[in-house]
């Protein structure tokens, strides 16, 4: 049931008395993986985001020094995936349902005495939900430090392994995700069905794009027939192994910093106290 997570780091394997007696509980890092069950083209399974999140986190927790207390929660497999709803198999929650689930899980974590919660999101369609939930939780509990983090935003070398076009335009089920799945769950990857497809180009000089500083709303079928947004045909297990090592190293660094993190306090800048 712990998937890629080391059993000693899997929160549900603890008893309530063990949780009650955890020392330095205000600094213990609780990590809630949040993912999705959604289409990833004809060559990848629906579980990609969850597999990547749990695979990266599991490897990071294996590398983490035992003196740093950090525990993984069970993955929230369902997410807000309605941009993929036109492709069979995609399961989606509403914004309201996902937000309420995160808030209520976090309430329980806080009630148990923990004060540091990481929302480790692996699905690109819902980082804004993590950010808003984190802010609302900190408003609700002033001493609750909540970190809305995206799995792929820690330091890593992935872009160095991709073509310039893939690094710029690959968004979904492309080289990086396919390569890391070849490292994690190779039996579920059907490379003979992999196809490359990029979003239609915007008019020359346009400021707008599906993702970027000035985005427009879109669903996947607007910009892809296959469900792929990128080029998975160049993916390899060797590349995936390197990506997995690098991203998990980034997460070790992040967890260490969160463990010692203290909430910033305002500093007076003049005699008036402002």
TrEMBL record:
InterPro entries named in the record: Creatininase-like_sf, Creatininase/forma_Hydrolase
Q: Which UniProt keywords apply?
A: Hydrolase, Metal-binding, Zinc
Keyword Cytoplasm included in the entry's annotation? no
In alphabetical order, the GO MF annotations are: hydrolase activity, acting on carbon-nitrogen (but not peptide) bonds, in linear amides; metal ion binding
Source organism of this protein record: Cyanomargarita calcarea GSE-NOS-MK-12-04C
- SUPFAM superfamilies in alphabetical order: Creatininase
- The protein in question is named Creatininase family protein
* Pfam families linked: Creatininase
UniProt GO BP: riboflavin biosynthetic process
Cofactor annotation: Zn(2+)
Keyword rRNA-binding applies: no
**Family as reported in the entry's similarity comment:** Belongs to the creatininase superfamily.
């Amino acid at each position: 049931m712990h998937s890629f997570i080391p059993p000693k780091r899997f929160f549900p394997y603890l008893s309530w008395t063990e949780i009650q007696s955890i020392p330095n509980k205000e600094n213990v890092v609780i990590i809630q993986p949040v993912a999705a069950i959604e289409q990833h083209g004809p060559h990848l399974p629906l579980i990609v985001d969850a597999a990547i999140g749990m695979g990266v986190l599991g490897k990071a927790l294996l590398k983490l020094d035992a003196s740093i207390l950090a525990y993984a929660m069970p993955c929230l497999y369902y997410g807000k995936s309605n941009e993929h709803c036109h492709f069979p198999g995609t399961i989606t929650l509403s914004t309201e349902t996902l937000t309420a689930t995160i808030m209520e899980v976090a309430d329980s974590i806080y009630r148990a005495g923990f004060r540091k919660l990481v929302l480790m999101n692996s699905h690109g369609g819902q980082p804004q939900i993590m950010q808003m939930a984190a802010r609302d939780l900190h408003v609700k509990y002033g001493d609750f430090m909540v970190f809305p983090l995206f799995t792929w935003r820690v330091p890593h070398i992935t872009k160095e392994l991709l073509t310039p076009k893939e690094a710029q335009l690959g968004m979904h089920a492309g080289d990086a995700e396919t390569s890391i799945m070849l490292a994690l769950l190779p039996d579920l990857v059907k490379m003979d069905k992999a196809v490359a497809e990029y979003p239609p180009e915007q008019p020359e000089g346009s400021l707008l794009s599906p993702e970027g500083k000035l985005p427009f709303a879109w669903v996947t079928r607007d910009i892809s027939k296959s469900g792929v947004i990128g080029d998975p045909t160049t993916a390899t297990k060797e590349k995936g192994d390197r990506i997995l090592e690098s991203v998990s190293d980034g997460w070790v660094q992040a967890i260490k910093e969160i463990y010692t993190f203290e909430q910033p306090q305002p500093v007076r800048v003049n005699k008036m106290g402002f």
